[in-house]
């Protein structure tokens, strides 16, 4: 990446921080005003008794379901509430169909905000300020998390787990032997490190975008990461919500910056052809070959499940991780890009509120943390409950973030976030279209 880009004229950190502070004031404390959701009156405990049973619909099953239910056992016994959880691989469509037919579960766990916004707009979801202590909840969460669930001024879901994407992984032994810093303060400093790696005859980065019909989503993450770092969360929100066009100069600029990294000679193992043809799950493998073929891979916390089995068995000794650094001259703070399951309430009564209070608190998830594969969205969660030091490192990175933002493509209309953005990234990486051309085409196809 060219260090000359570090002094571009962009929103200053102070201005971005001030504007970000304004977004925190958008929550409407008056349940009768604003938004499109249901639950028009403030909930009062005792007014609407439950029947001792609460139904929950979510997208995850298998071992995740087992860990989820284990995390609820003590609560169920203490509260004398039976929780009936139903996993559905087609959750996105099922929740729309059931809610539209008047057969919604009491609580739904949305893996992306889009479907939740659709149902909130139809008045089918109760905004959380009607039954939760919004300020108390917001005070324990990673900053900005609740903004991901905001629709027309009110928040309709609260996170019960998170995914952290802004992570850079490296093979600890080879990386330390090479003497490379594991604490770059900025992306410009990381560029200096990658130049040293290249000088040592090793590719700095490994990357893979192949995922069948979903090929290209990894590329959208790169753009989102840099939009947050270069231009800050306010511009990021304007972009994902289409308050600025997809082909705004800020977006085109970020495409060009990312292009210097991914398309730069010798920066990525195998070049752009390898990126397109390598399954995203195989991108980390060259880091752990002997000798090491690449030193860095940028991917979310889930990527550890694709490491070689012998590496997974000894991750604390074999794997290193640090946060994707900030951009010098960009947003003044460490942003984190990620996702999470958002709990939303369809049925308002004493039992469902108790379950929502627990699910969305920092007391939930201890058993899931011990089982692995889960992160709490709360800064106040007891991190000693995580099963390994790598997970604790990731939790510390997320907890220390200045701001959290949801994956941008998940916030955009499906035709863009799961369509033209993906295909546009492939065309751009292959060089068949320029940054401006790709952004222009995505903007032209944005649903009216």
TrEMBL record:
Family membership: Belongs to the bacterial solute-binding protein 1 family.
SUPFAM superfamilies assigned to the protein according to its UniProt record, in alphabetical order: Periplasmic binding protein-like II
Protein name: ABC transporter substrate-binding protein
Keywords recorded for this protein, A-Z: Transport
Organism: Brachybacterium tyrofermentans
Highest taxon listed in the record's lineage: Bacteria
Region span, Disordered: 23-51
Compositionally biased intervals (Gly residues): 32-41
InterPro entries (UniProt xref): Bact_solute-bd_prot1 (IPR050490), SBP (IPR006059), TAT_signal (IPR006311)
PROSITE patterns in UniProt: PROKAR_LIPOPROTEIN, TAT
